[in-house]
Amino acid sequence: MRRAPTAHDVTLLLQAWGDGDKEALDRLAPLIYRELHILAKRFMSRERRDHTLQATALVNETYLRLVDIHQANWQDRAHFFAICARAMRQILVDHVRSRGSIKRGGGQQPLQLEEALVMAESPYSKLLELDDALNRLAALDQRKSRVVELRFFGGLSVEETAEALKTSPETVMRDWKMAKAWLHRELGDNQNGA
């Protein structure tokens, strides 16, 4: 009976792939696909049900972006999934922005006022607001922004986040609480027109 791969096995394959071993990527892909799909499903669970991007497409797009990285310095499994979470966040934000540019023209017929009002209330704008707020938070405190990205978008546990950021779980919890309060205030102010 074959044993399940450990986090250490994944780390060794990531490091070999980062060093240019193409066969390591072939062995790694089936080991990480399920976890990437779970991560993508977490992302997509926060989106509208009729979102045009599905979890499998998000995984595939993330995979394509990662395959293009040459000579990556993958530290470990947590670091890899942190990079995946950032890539997925960026893919979703890019997707929303491209849909927004289509809605604002993009070679299409102008929208009627009623259609524009319905689209203005779209949950897509909330993702952009969150992304903008996280970028503002990163300008003030990069680590707190990364904690939110890893915990909220990446679904990493406190321990995995601490490992990825090379800090203690206590620091992660403190940063997580402070960042959530800051984001709540920022996003609340935006919703009130401030």
Describe the structure.
This protein is mainly alpha-helical and 194 residues long. The chain has one domain. It has nine helices and no strands. Residues 102-124 have low confidence and may be disordered.
Quick overview of this protein structure:
By secondary structure, the protein is mostly helical. It has 9 helices and no strands.
Q: What structural class should be given to the helix and strand makeup? A: mainly alpha
Low-confidence stretches: 102-124
Kindly report the average pLDDT value.
76
What would you report as the Rg, rounded to the nearest angstrom?
A: 19 Å
What is the tally of beta strands? Answer: 0
- What spatial form do the alpha-carbon principal axes imply? globular
Strand content: under 5%
What's the assembly state of these chains?
A: single chain
Give helix and strand order, one letter per element, not per position: HHHHHHHHH
Q: Report the total helices.
A: 9
Proportion in helices: over 70%
What's the number of structural domains? 1
N- to C-terminal separation?
61 Å
Largest sheet: none
Topology:
Layout: H1 7-18, H2 22-45, H3 55-67, H4 77-103, H5 113-120, H6 124-140, H7 142-153, H8 158-165, H9 169-191
Helix pairs in contact: 1-2, 2-3, 2-4, 3-4, 4-6, 4-8, 6-7, 6-9, 7-9, 8-9
What are its keywords?
194 residues, mainly alpha, 9 helices, globular
